[in-house]
Amino acid sequence: MKLKTALFAAAATIAISPSAFAYEGLYGAIGAGLSYLEDDLDVEAVAGPQAPWDSEMNTDNGIGVYTALGKYFGDSWRGEIEFSYRNNDVRSMTADVPKISAFPEGQMSGDIAAYALMINVIKDLDFIGGDWVTPYVGGGVGFAHLDADFVGVRTLGLNGINNIVVDDSDRRLAYQGIAGLAFKLAESLSLDLSYRYFGTLQPTFDGLLQGAPFKYEGAYASHSAFAGLRWNFGAAPAKAEYKDCWDGSSVPVTSECPPQVTEKVVGEPIQTIVYFDYDKSNLTPEAEALIRETAQRALQFNIQTVKVEGNADRSGGSAYNQALSQRRANVVRDALVANGVPADRIDMTAFGEDNPAKPTEDGVREPLNRRTEIKISFM
Q1: Is 162's pLDDT higher than 60?
Q2: What is the value of pTM for the model shown?
Q3: Domain 2-232: which CATH number of 2.40.160.20, 3.50.50.60, 2.40.50.90, 3.40.225.10
């Protein structure tokens, strides 16, 4: 009991490691070793004609195996799901009460087995062992399926008891404490040497005592020494590489340097006028060159808005001139976009004949009014 208390206290009070955890991602583990059940495990008949019958069970050293799938978390913590199996042969029973028969060695056969599914939380103490060995401590909770299958027969028994037969199973909450050392064998492979204290809440089994049905409660507490392998599906984090920045500081190569303080340059507003032939909305080669030059100037700065305003003269009907000015605005807008000006910055308007550069009488053809104006502002 003192050993179990000390183990759990160590797992609960260990300081958090300041170093980074060794690996990332998932890992698998498998191991096997010795399973030792505590001597003098209490066996007490709690129901049946022979109750109260009290004895203590002793077992031989047995075997244990485990397999686990886990995941590394931050700060050297990891969690895992573990399946384990332990088996010990029953050796003898000794009587606690005078005049109650027992079953010495050679008069008992059978075993007690435990199948367990556990959830473990483990802390790697990688600030202690260095690069080649890492101590760890942890604990787990889960469920155990316990099988009791043994027989005791003797030719002469005190108080008339000379046989016991148990072949039953029970499921109980299980718990364990873990301590071990991990020895690095390769980049993603380590040898685990661990000690585990494994126990369950008290199981209850049905059997026959002197041929009569009875129910007994027993204790289950195992000490296991395991050797196993743990392989990491994830790789160890690469050592951080740094780069020098303009201000003399160093940052990881994956990070950005502090921004340099520069004076913000805002472009001067641009105003360009594209002229059209009479009753036309297509661009002349000269107009295309003018729009291309305007776009190149604008793209040197952060564009805020681009206003494209189509116009027509007064030679023709008002509705016709409105549509004509719209076509002239459209063709200039398309040319700006084709030269790299963002479409979402362009605001387009068609004025028809209502916004003349040179006022005229109705029906007058005026080249200055057959135009599209481009007005660009910056931020």
Answers
A1: yes
A2: 0.56
A3: 2.40.160.20
